[in-house]
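Follow-up to my post from last week.
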Amino acid sequence: MDAFRTRVGGFAFGGDYNPEQWEPAVWQEDVRLMREAGVNAVSLGVFAWASLEPEPGTYEFGWLDDVMDLLHEHGISVNLATPTAAPPVWLTHLHPEVFPIMADGEPFGFGNRLHYDPSSPIYREYAARITTRLAERYSFHPALAMWHISNEYGPTAYNEAASVNFRRWLRRRYGDLDTLNEAWTTRFWGQLYTDWDQIEVPNIPRTWMNPARKLDFKRFTSDALLECYLAERDIVRSFRDDVPVMTNFMRFFRHADYWRWAQEEDAAALDIYPNPAEADSHVSAAFNYDLFRSLKGGQPWMLMEQSSSAVCQWKLNVVKEPGRMRLGSLQAVSRAADSVMFFQWRASRGGHERFHSAMLPHSGPGSRTFKEIVELGREMRLLAPVAGTTSRAEIAVLFDWDGWWGLEETHGLPRSDFSYTDTVMRHYTPLWERHHAVDMVSSGSSLDGYKVLVVPNAYLIGDEGAERIRAFARDGGTVVMSFFSGVVDDCNRVRPGGYPGAFRELIGAKIDEYWPARPHEVFTVRFADGRRATSTWWRDDLHLETGTALATYADGLLEGRAAVTENRYGAGRVVYVATLLEQAALDAVVLEAVESAGVRSRSEGVPAHVECSVRGDETYEYVFLLNHSAELGASVPLEGHGTDLLTGSPVSGHVELGPLGAAVVQRALP
Amino acid sequence: MDAFRTRVGGFAFGGDYNPEQWEPAVWQEDVRLMREAGVNAVSLGVFAWASLEPEPGTYEFGWLDDVMDLLHEHGISVNLATPTAAPPVWLTHLHPEVFPIMADGEPFGFGNRLHYDPSSPIYREYAARITTRLAERYSFHPALAMWHISNEYGPTAYNEAASVNFRRWLRRRYGDLDTLNEAWTTRFWGQLYTDWDQIEVPNIPRTWMNPARKLDFKRFTSDALLECYLAERDIVRSFRDDVPVMTNFMRFFRHADYWRWAQEEDAAALDIYPNPAEADSHVSAAFNYDLFRSLKGGQPWMLMEQSSSAVCQWKLNVVKEPGRMRLGSLQAVSRAADSVMFFQWRASRGGHERFHSAMLPHSGPGSRTFKEIVELGREMRLLAPVAGTTSRAEIAVLFDWDGWWGLEETHGLPRSDFSYTDTVMRHYTPLWERHHAVDMVSSGSSLDGYKVLVVPNAYLIGDEGAERIRAFARDGGTVVMSFFSGVVDDCNRVRPGGYPGAFRELIGAKIDEYWPARPHEVFTVRFADGRRATSTWWRDDLHLETGTALATYADGLLEGRAAVTENRYGAGRVVYVATLLEQAALDAVVLEAVESAGVRSRSEGVPAHVECSVRGDETYEYVFLLNHSAELGASVPLEGHGTDLLTGSPVSGHVELGPLGAAVVQRALP
Amino acid sequence: MDAFRTRVGGFAFGGDYNPEQWEPAVWQEDVRLMREAGVNAVSLGVFAWASLEPEPGTYEFGWLDDVMDLLHEHGISVNLATPTAAPPVWLTHLHPEVFPIMADGEPFGFGNRLHYDPSSPIYREYAARITTRLAERYSFHPALAMWHISNEYGPTAYNEAASVNFRRWLRRRYGDLDTLNEAWTTRFWGQLYTDWDQIEVPNIPRTWMNPARKLDFKRFTSDALLECYLAERDIVRSFRDDVPVMTNFMRFFRHADYWRWAQEEDAAALDIYPNPAEADSHVSAAFNYDLFRSLKGGQPWMLMEQSSSAVCQWKLNVVKEPGRMRLGSLQAVSRAADSVMFFQWRASRGGHERFHSAMLPHSGPGSRTFKEIVELGREMRLLAPVAGTTSRAEIAVLFDWDGWWGLEETHGLPRSDFSYTDTVMRHYTPLWERHHAVDMVSSGSSLDGYKVLVVPNAYLIGDEGAERIRAFARDGGTVVMSFFSGVVDDCNRVRPGGYPGAFRELIGAKIDEYWPARPHEVFTVRFADGRRATSTWWRDDLHLETGTALATYADGLLEGRAAVTENRYGAGRVVYVATLLEQAALDAVVLEAVESAGVRSRSEGVPAHVECSVRGDETYEYVFLLNHSAELGASVPLEGHGTDLLTGSPVSGHVELGPLGAAVVQRALP
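User reply:
Got it. Predicted complex:
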C-alpha cells in the first residue's frame, strides 16, 4: 500500500469509471475533466464482464486496452476490477442453476447484479476464467495500481449447491455428526441428523428455526462468499504479487464477517452512503470509519465509494446540500481513510442508477456538484502529507459479527426487536460527542494497550472471547457492559450455571430472569448521587453477589434492586448496565467509566457540533476540526501552534469555522 | 378419567418432560426435584421420534425404558406421547413430499415441528408404525397413565396428496358433482366442475375465491388432521382400551373444529399461554376454560400446557410477575381443570425454545420460579377434594367453528375485518364481570336446561342449527343475538327471502341492506328509558315486523329506526342488537336479558377485579375467589360458612384477599 | 353506434345478466321485472364458458337460445359476451401452463377469473374456438345488438409463453439486438444481450431492475392483452360487420394503454365503482368520464358496469345512500355516457360476489334499491333526446400511460412514492370545481382547438410527444406544466443537455438537480403579488434562463429562487410549477393560466357542491346540474330559458335543487 500511496502522491481521488457505457469520444472528455478535477485513480471495469466476454470464451479486450492506455497517458492509476459481480446473461441462460435461490424459494433472476449463488461451482469456474484472462493481459500494464476483486460481495443463496457446500463447511467445523447434533441441540424438537445429506440450508420455515443451524448458516454464507474472493485474489496474485488486492465492503453489512475478510485484503475498503436526510448519519459514518481503520489494526483504509450528492436506491433520496460532500469526505480522511473515491465518475443515462449522483452529473461541468468535486480534488492534494498516517485509541468497543447474528438472526429471544447496531451506536455516541478516539475490536482481537473496553449487548460470545474480556478486566482494565450479555455460547446454547453464564463473576451478580418491558413501560432509576433517570425496554432481574449498585430502581416490581452496578474484578473495574437507560444517563455512565480509567479526551472545549479527530505519525499530528452544523459557526480552542493545511495559514490558540467549515491543523510533535 | 384422577390423587401436576435432551445424570436430579415440587405426572416423549427411531426401522427404546422405570419408581405417572408431531429428518429426506406445501406454494421445510401434510399416506404410514411400536412396548408399563397422541395438531397443507384427500372428502360429503356444483354455486364466474380430478385445494388465488370451496377446505383440513389422530388413537386402543387417550388442543385455534374432535378424546386438554403483557388476557383465558369444560359436556378437562413465566414465541415475551402463575393456575382449576401442567419441566439449553420458561428454569432450584412451582404443588395437594367436580350454567354462548370460518375465512363480505373471537368476547365479558356461570355450545349442541342463549354474529349457520335456536326461543328461552346473523346457509349461500334468512321471524324484523359504517363514523343510539349510547362499525337497515324497538338511532340516515329490538317468539324472548354498541351499552343489553330470564349471579357484591366461580358435586361446592389486581386487595362477602382449602381456615361472611390473592372455600351443600 | 342508439331508443339501461345461475322459472320473473324497470339492454354470458362448453368441444347452447329468445320477446337487446374471461376448469386442468405465473413465481390458480396468460397459444386457440361457435350461432339472432368481447382484460403473466411473446414483440419494436441493447442501456451493470433467447420477462428481481426493460414489459403486456381482444373481435366481425364490438375497460387501470385500445373499439366502455366512503370519489369519477369521452375523440361512451349500492371487493364496502346511485348515473350521462348499465341484474346467492349489490337485490322487488332502479329507468327514458350528443372543451389535460409507467413502474427515481393519478387529479380538481369542460389527451393526440394544455408531471415523454407540446406553445397555446417533466426519453434514458432535457427551452430554465424534500419539510413560497403559500415534497433546483419567476422560495436553501415560473415561448405562454404547492395555491396557478388564455367557465355562480356540465348538438344543449351534497340544497342561476327534462317544467333564471338533487335543462341553441 505504501507503493500505491507513493504512486498517487498521497490520497487516491477519483471514482468508479464505466467507459463501456459511452462512446470513445466521451472518453476524451472524461480524462480531460478528470485532470481538471485532480482525479488520480479510478476503479475500472467493475460491471464489464459482458463487455469483455460477450459470448462464452469470446473476449473483447480492445476497448479496455484503449482505456487503460488513455488513463495511463493522463497519469491516472487504475484499480482494475474483476467483473464477477455481474455475470453476463449468457451465463445464467446456459446455467440457470447459478441464480441464487432466495429465502422464499424463488430464484433471483436477471436484471440486477450479484445474481449468483456463491457456492455454485459453475459460477466459480467462469469467474476464475475471466479473472485469469484479465490478469494475463493487464498484470503488467503500467496503469495497473490495484486489483478490485468483484464488488460488494453479498448474496445469500439457498440453492442445492449451497446445501452441498454448507455440508462441506459443517464437516470441516464439526468433524462428525454427533458433535454437530450436540452443538445444534438437535434433541430439542427431535431434529437429530443421522446422515450428512439430511442437512439442508435453512431455507423455508421462515420463523421458528433451530438457532444454531441458522447461526452456522450465517457463518457459512460469509465464508462461502470469502471463498469466491480468495479464489480470484489468488489468481491475480499468481501473476504478480506486488500489486495490492482488495474488495469493497459495505457499511454495517451483516452478511459478511469483515474481521475475517480483512485478514485477506491488502486494504480495507468501504462503500458508504450516509443518508443526508438523517440528522446523525455522520455519527454512524464515524463509527464505520473507526471500524474500517480497526479492521486491519490501524492501517489506513480506503473510502472506495460514496456519492457526490443524492443516491437512488432508497424510497427518498435527498441531495447533499452545498458543502456536505466535502465535509463528509474530510471526515473519512480524519479517521484514517487514504482515499476519497466515488460511485461513479460520470452519471449514467439509463439503467437502474440513472439518478445516482456522480462526480460529473447530468448537468455537466457547469453544475454545482462538479465545481465542488474540483475544489475537493484541490484540497486532497493540499492534504497529501496526511496520507499514510493513522491514529491510536485507549478505548475499544466490541463489535462482533457472531454477536450480531446471535442477536438478530435467531429466533426465540425474550424480545425480537433487538438492533445490535443501534445498541452499539448508543454506546459509541457519547464517546464520539466527547471526541474520544475509539477503536473497534472483535471477540478475537487483542486488547493490549486499551484502558477501557465497551461491550454492548454481547448476547452470544464464545469461550475464548469471554475469557479475553475477563482477562482484560483482571489485568486492570475497565469494562462497560450492557444487559443481556454473555448469555449463550458460540452454539447459541444458554450457558449453564445461571445468567449471565459467561460474566456472572465478572459483573459480580446473577440474573434470575430477563424482564423485557411492556410497551410504554417506563422505570425510574436513581443513581447513588441522587440523580434520577428513566429506563425502558428491558430489565435484568439482577441479584448482587460481589458487585455493588451504582443505581437502583425507584419504582416497579424491582424497586430497590440494582439497575447499574460496579464490580471489582481482579485489578479491574466492571460497570454493568442492566436496563435500557435513557441516552443522557447512559452517556454519563460510559463517560464516568472512561474518565475513571484515566482516559482523557484530547479535545476539551470543542463544541458538540464540531467533530474533532486526530491522525498522525512520529513527526506530526493532524487535527481535523469538522463543523457538522449548517447553521452555526464555531470557535474552537486549540493548544499549541500549527498550520491549517487547507488554507496554509498558521493557527494558534483558536480555529474559526463557518457552517459546514473544516480545518486540518498540522502540528509538529515534540 | 376417574381412574387417572385416583391414580394421581386428585389433580395432575407436572409438565412436559424431555429427558432425551439431557444426560442420565440429570434425570436423577430431575426426579428428585419433581418430588420436591409435588410433580405427579409428566408428558413424556412428545418430540422424541428421532431419538426413538434414529433411522428408518431402527429403534432405540433403552433410554425410554430407563426413564419410564425411573419415573415409576418415584411415583410419577406418565402421559406417554406418540412423537408424530416431529417427523425425523430422515423421513422428509427420503420423502420430501411429506413436507406440507404452504399457501404461497413453497414447502414448509425442516427445522420447526409439524412439518407434515396430514393427508400424506407416507406420513400416516410411518406415524402408524412408530405408534404401534410404542404401544407394543409400553401399553402395560406400570408408569403409563394416559396416551398423549401427537401434539398440537395444526398444519394446513396444499399438497397434491391434500388435493386427493380433499376430493375423497368432497365425494363423501356431496356424492356427485351436480350436488357439489350446486352447493358451491359454481355457475357464478363459470366454475363448473365436470370431473372430480379438476378439484384442487384452494391454494393460489389468495384473494377472491369461491367462498364455499374455501369453507369446505377449512372443514376438510380439520377432518384430515382428525383422521391422523384417530388412526393413532385406534392403534393404542387396540393394545389396551382402559387407558385414557387425548391430544392437546390450543387456545382459540381456528384450524380444527374442537367440538367434533372432543367427541373422540377421553379428556379435552388445553395448551394456553395467556399473555402477561395484555391487561385482560385472564378474561379470554376464562372463556377458553369454559369452552374446554363445555366441549365434553361439563366433564373436567386438563390444563395440559402453560408457562411458569415468559414464553419465547412472540415479538415481546413478558414474564409473569410473582403470584401471577399461581393465580392463573387456580383460575383454570376454578373452571373445572383437573390438572395443572406446564411446558416444560426443565428449560432447554438450546433450540428454538431455549428462552421459554420452565418449571425448573436456567437459574435452577434457587430461582423465584422454582420456588413458586414448589408452593403451587403444595397447594394442588390441598385442593385434592376439588378434583372431579364440575359446574353448571343457565347461560350458553354459541361458539361455532363453521360460523368462525364463514366470517373470517371467506372473502367478499360487506367488510373484511370481522373478528369472531373479539365479538364473542364482547358478549362474554359482561357475563364474566358479573360472575355468571356460562357454558359454550355449538350449533349442534343440545340447549336443554339453559335459560339464555347468546348468539354473537352467527353469519353462517346450517338449517338444523338455526332451527335449534328457533326452537329454544319458541320453548321459552331468551335469545340475545347480534347483527349479521343467519345470513348464509352452510354452503355460504345467502338464504332467500330477504335478510336475515334464518332469523327473520325470530327477530321479528327484516333487513333491507347491511350498512357497514365508514371509518370514524359514530352513531347515537337512544334507549326506551332515555339512556343514550354510541355505536359504530355496522348497522343493519332494519325494518320491524313483529318486533319492537328497545333502542333507536338518534341521528344519521337511519334516525328513528330500530337499533336494538325485542321480539316475542313462541314462549320466548329475542333481543337483537343491530349495530356495534359501545361495550357498556352492550353489557347492559346482555345483562338485562339475563336478569329478565331469571338468571341470578351467585356472587353479588364481589368486586370487579375479583373473579368468582364455583365448581362442586352433590356434597360440596368450592367457591374460587381470585383477585386479579396486583395493586388492590379485596374484601369479598360470602354467604354461609366454609373452609378455605388453601389455608385450612374457616371462612364466614367475608374473605379477605391481598393483591393477586386467592381463596378456595369449601362449603357443604344443604 | 347510431343504429344501436336507435334500437334502444336513446340510452341503454340494464346490466349484466347471468341467467345460468338460476332456474328457468326465475328467468320469467327476470324479464317481467326488467320491463318494470325499463331495462332495454343486458350484457349476457360474460362468465358462461363453462355453461356453454362444459367439456372440451361439447356445447350446450340450448339455454342461451332460450334466454336470447325470451329477451328478444320482451324487447330487450343483448350485448352478447364472448366468455373468455373465465376459462373452464377443464381447460386449465388439461393445460396448467395456461395459468398466469405471478410476479412471485407462483401460478395464479383456479377460483377467481382472468386465470390465463394472454400470451398462451393454447388459451388463444380455445378462446377463438368458443368465440367462433358463438358468432356462428348468434350473429344474426334478432336480440343481438352488440358484442362484448371478454371482460376487463387485465392479467400480467410471467410465463415462458409470455417470454416467447415478449421476444417477438421486442423484435418487432427494435429489429436487432444492438438497437435493443442501446435502448435499454444494457452496458450499465453489464446486461448486454447477445441472443434473443436470453431475454425473459422481468419476473424475479423485485426491486432494482433495468428500467427500460420494465417499461417495455408494461407496454408489451398491454399489447399482449390487446392481441387477445383483436383476435376475438376479428372473428365476430368476420361473420357480420354491422354490429358494434367493444370490451369493458376499468377506472384508472394501469395495465392497458386505453388510448391504443380505444382505436380498436366501436365504443369506449367503462366499468366504474366510485367508493361511497370517499368524500371526493365523484371528482375522480368525473375525470374518468371525461377520459372515456376523449378516448374516441368526443364520441359518446358506455357506462358498462356500476353498482346499485355497495360492492364487495374492498375491505370496507359502504352502501350508496338513497339518491346517490341516481346522481352518479346522471353524472356519467352528463359527461357523454350513452348508457347506464350495472353489474349485475340479480344478486347472486353464492360465489365471491354474493354481497355485491344488484339492480334486483336479495331483498327483492320491495327493496329500496329496486325502487330506485325503477325510478331511474323512468328518468332515462325522459332523457332520450340527450343520447348521442357530446361536448367540447378548450382545455386539455395530458394523461398518458407511458408517462404513468415511467413514473410508477420503474425503480431508481429520486423518490419512490409518485402517484401519477393523484398528481393528475390535483391539476384536474380546480378545473372541475370551476365547471370547466376538459378533455384528456395522450402524448400522441392532436392538440388542435385547445387553448390550454395541462401537463402534470410528464417525467417520461417521447420525442414526438415533447415536440407536439412545444409546437402547441409555439403556436400560441398556454401550457401549465409541473415539476419533474421531460426528464427521460421513451427508453427511460435521461435526456442529455441538462434537466429537463425535453423542455428546457420551453420553460426557459434549467434544473441543476432534483431536490426531493425530507419528510415533514415545508417551504414558504411567495408570489409576485405578495401572496404566500406552502409547498412540500419536491423542489427543482431551478436556474432561470429566458423564464421569469411568478413565485419564489421565501426560506430554505433555495431562498429567493424561482418556485413557479412563466416563459414566453413562440406565441405561447408556459407556466411551470417546480414544487408541490398546497392545493389552493396550485388551484390559483392553474385557474389564472386558464383565464389568461381566455377560457371562460360557462357556469358562473354555480355553488361548489353543484356539478355543472353540458352536452349537446347543433340544435340543443343540455345543462346538467347535479347537487353532490346530501345536506345542502342550492339555487343555481341559469341564463336563458329551457326545460328540465326530468320534470318537464320550464326553467328560467334559476334552478332549485334539493340535497342530491338534479336537473337536466334542455336549451335551444341560437
